[in-house]
Amino acid sequence: MASTRLFNLKRHLPELFELEHLLVRAGARVRSKVLTQVSVADTQLPIHALELGSDAPGAPMLGLIGGVHGVERIGSQVLLAYLHSLLERMRWDDSIDCQLAGLKLVFVPIANPGGMYHNSRCNPNGVDLMRNAPIAAKGKVPMLLGGHRISRMLPWYRGPKDAPMEPELQALHGYMEEQINGRPFNLTLDVHSGFGFKDRLWFPYAGAFEPIRDLNVMYRINRLFVKTFPNHTLYQVEPQAHSYTTHGDVWDLLYDNSLIQQPEATFLPLTLEMGSWLWVKKNPRQLLRYRGLFHPELPHRRSRILRRHYPLLDFLMMATRSHRNWMKTKPEQVDKDTRAAIKLWYDGEART
Ligand SMILES: [Zn+2]
Predict the structure, then answer these.
(1) Among 66, 115, 152, 165, which one is least packed by beta carbons within 10 Å?
(2) GO cellular component annotations, sorted alphabetically (predicted)?
(3) Burial 210-249 (b: 16+ CB within 10 A, else e)
(4) CA 263 / ligand 1 centre spacing (Å)
(5) What's the gap in Å between 192 CA and the centre of ligand 1?
(6) Would residue 257 be called left, alpha or beta, if left means φ above 0 and alpha means ψ between -120 and 50 degrees?
(7) Which residues lie closer than 8 Å to 195 by C-beta, 6 or more apart?
């Protein structure tokens, strides 16, 4: 039985095979748990959560999430490559221990293993997990793409009305709430691929054009990144609603709930949307396979993408750990940053 499972994983879900291999090798360097299991083809596929660094209840937290859309495997692979490097560095690099002592780093690299097993965007029930949270967009959304309840045979299906969230999303949502709870500072990055020619770094809202309360914090993070890595201007940083609005975005739900549950804390959920149209443009043969729309097929391009986002992931870790050094809390400074952010992102002027 165990050998059949390994065979199946290697063939259909090499990302989970790699993750479980990393877990075994990591030993005590990582704390891990299974959030839930998904049944696929007589096999139970776990959703693993991995925790590194400080376990202090008030430590700042960085959460890295991938594979919410099963066909966007490159997102999981980017996180697994980063995790691999961290674990290797923990063997010999004193500075990484020092860094991790000051924050909690959480990975959920394969949030939709059933979808990934089937090479499908949605979960095995045909539901798009990023349209499934019980939160509706304010105003109109693009037809189908914004989320719909017409049929699970069509992409972007939200799931039946008033049904509970899908098991994968319940697990992710519950785990993230648990992690955020009681912490003064939290950042998350959910890694996707598939939209546009550029890599985009989105912040909430996905379902509304209105600015978030923490717009000033987003402004600071953007400024910090641009000033620290002036030659790494890969990302178009913007509210997700600038690209398209959607119903049911779980990060919108978590963000709004965090404002109610712990208004004094900061929680900023970011999404990295890697622009896969560029990979298709450079290698049109990718169009011949469905997954080619979302995943770089050529090995050299895949390697390039796996290393391309290291600086961003390192930066988010440093920014989380040292948030007290760059966060501005005086009301006049918060107002000034908010005004600058509105000018940058909401006045129709030049964007970064
Ligand atoms: Zn996606």
Answers:
(1) 152
(2) extracellular space
(3) ebbebbbbbbbbbbbbeeeeeeeebbbbbbbbebebbbbb
(4) 29
(5) 4
(6) alpha
(7) 243, 273, 275, 276, 277
